[in-house]
Design brief:
Blueprint lengths: L23 H11 L7 H7 L7 H16 L1
Organism: Rugamonas rivuli
Protein name: DUF6434 domain-containing protein
């Protein structure tokens, strides 16, 4: 069954599937996890869509890692 990226409740355990979409629902979740400075960029989206198994917690953690590396 397809996950409803527009309306379903997203948690850190929500798996990224082939039908993943950057919706307002996804942005709300990631802003809650990463803070108000969260934004998508091309490199993060390429990482999300790379095909490797991951969940939304992995996405939030990766964004945080990339942000911290940029500050170093």
């Amino acid at each position: 069954m397809k996950f409803d990226w527009h309306g379903a409740e997203i948690s850190r355990a929500t798996e990224i599937d082939a039908d993943y979409r950057n919706t307002q629902n996804v942005r709300r979740f990631l802003s809650g996890q990463c803070g108000p400075d969260f934004k998508f960029d091309r490199e993060l989206m390429a990482w999300v869509r790379s095909g490797a198994a991951k969940n939304m917690g992995d996405v939030a953690d990766e964004w945080t890692r990339r942000r911290e590396r940029g500050r170093a």
